[in-house]
Design a protein that fits this description.
The structure is a homodimer. Helix content of chain A is 76%, strand content 0%. By secondary structure, chain A is mainly alpha-helical.
Chain lengths: 252, 252
Amino acid sequence: MDDFLKIRRRPEFRQEIISNNLEIVKLAIASSVSKDTFIIQAISTIDDLDKLCNLLTRRVREWYGYYFPELSVHIEDDEIYIRQILLKSKEEFMQEFNLKVSMGPKLEEKDLEAIIGLVRSVEQLYSERESIIHYLKELMQEHCRNLYTVVGALIGAKLLQKAGSLKHLSQMPSSTIQVLGAESALFRHLRNKKIRPPKHGIILSHPLVMNARRDMRGKRSRQLAAKISIAAKVDYFKGEFIGDKLKEELEK
Amino acid sequence: MDDFLKIRRRPEFRQEIISNNLEIVKLAIASSVSKDTFIIQAISTIDDLDKLCNLLTRRVREWYGYYFPELSVHIEDDEIYIRQILLKSKEEFMQEFNLKVSMGPKLEEKDLEAIIGLVRSVEQLYSERESIIHYLKELMQEHCRNLYTVVGALIGAKLLQKAGSLKHLSQMPSSTIQVLGAESALFRHLRNKKIRPPKHGIILSHPLVMNARRDMRGKRSRQLAAKISIAAKVDYFKGEFIGDKLKEELEK
């Protein structure tokens, strides 16, 4: 016993314990990164890229607009606008839209090249966004297949993001899931009961709610939230695949 | 005369006049786009790209950080961080920094591929930013060579952007140029005379002002603004190249 105490007091011993402990903790931290984390990172990145693409497309509409202002009127969708610029020249567009004179001046090769370079970058961002969506879908299919089947990849991932993890989402009552993402409206209601509570948060963008009549939306989102809650619970406890059944019940 | 009036009243005649006028106006608009416009567009795009690169690099630091958190501590510069990730693998980094254990877990090929895809996009944005800076330099050299020589491409373009055009910049008194970009501080001073007026706006980032002692900065920026004002006037009226002389005088 005395020997042991002596060993313990030796500085090398302490240091070894500390360094071993540190490595154990590092490994523990390493193993705490779960698939949830990547789903949340992926959906956050998609949100970021959305914002950036919008910002840069606005810039392109302004800059390319000096060269060919008429195009912005003819193509409203941002992504199509960007891709079309890379495909066709101004002359081809003018033939296509039956324009005789453009309000934009002729540009030197160098000026046009600078704009097109920017357009190419924006297109590349759009492609990157798509490939991350693709990756997100794969992740969701593996990790929370039921949730994915009921609401799709984007809405499912956003719910996960708001909840923080699949575990938290699975523990939430369906009424919370229903208003997830509408927190500001919910608290406005809680502070002042005269203001009605929100009927839907993130799940508003689900087609079942979106395409419903206005007075049916509350009911639809309640039903949808109930199914999401079941799906999340089954996913978390690695249950069977029941997404198809849930979806069928919803559509009825 | 009567014949002429008859012709004028014919609807085809009116329509022809209208359509001809329209085309003339379109051509006039086309020719109103000057080099100024492109300089301003280029510098705005560079600003945008700066913002985006920051945002995306923060995202990468978070996402890649789950895989290899130690790297963010070792490389502080954003651009180098991004470029290094593409050059080396985690194992190589760990050897380089003498790390035994990483707090990040091993990832599946697919997960890592998604992150690297994003990193590649960010790197591409950095390159795009550089090529637009290159383009801006060329533009400035052609269009306002004196201004470019005195303050460089980025500061010169920012002054142009704030002023709206080279014409406006050339008409400004040098005291206005001195505080261009510090409007909020200037108006704070004008509302409340107790607050001192700003000593410099955009031109603060010029090395002559930046590297001066604190109490010398006001003087330096006044001198610099005076030279900028001369340079802009000469550039606008397409005078000779006197940038070298102006710069020399400043450096004395």
